[in-house]
Amino acid sequence: MFTHEDIWEAIDRLAATKGHSTSGLAKLAGLDPTSFNKSKRQSAEGKPRWPSTESLAKILTVTNLQITEFITYIETTPVETTTELHIDTDAYTPLFQKGDVLLISDSAPIRKNDRIVIQSAADEIIIGVFIEQDTHHILVIDRGQKLSIEKKAIHSLARIMSVQY
User: In 26-164, at which residue ranges do the beta strands (DSSP E only) sit?
Assistant: First the structure.
């Protein structure tokens, strides 16, 4: 069995996995960009509002998923795998020093102001703060500079979950 919250979290996870905010996913599906806003998930009286089957069908179409695949996004117990990234250079100071170990997850949702690690297709590592994204670019702040990175140039993207100093 799943709950109202499980469905909304699945939509959030699907959007993040496909590289979109929930607003971006709604727009891509031809819906009002505010369709999936957290403020619209309950009525003024606190009654849960469920996404319509039409909205679900539209996001499944634009993400090229079957309903059975969408069900895998409904998790009753969150599962996040982390990978250790060992910092072996001083290139990321002042945030991270040589010898630090970052625990990163490529399955965790990425939100504004999260610290992230990007591995480019050319094997360059960028560690920065996620600002926003559109369908073609991700905007990151890396050591005080705003970088607009083309999504097609990204090999992997992961959220920094914690740091071991």
Answer: 83-86, 101-105, 115-120, 125-133, 137-142, 145-150, 154-164
pTM over 0.70: no
In a domain, 153, yes or no: yes
* Residue-wise pLDDT tens digits, 88-131: 999 988 888 999 999 999 988 898 899 999 999 899 999 999 99
Q: Is the pLDDT of residue 81 over 90?
A: no
Q: Are residues 122 and 96 in the same domain?
A: yes
Please check whether residue 158 lies inside any domain of the structure.
yes
Q: Which domain holds residue 22?
A: 4-71
Which candidate, 51, 61, 64, places its Cα nearest to that of 10? Answer: 51
* Contact (Cβ atoms closer than 8 angstroms) between residue 125 and residue 94: no
- The domain tally of the chain equals 2
**Three-class DSSP category at 94:** coil
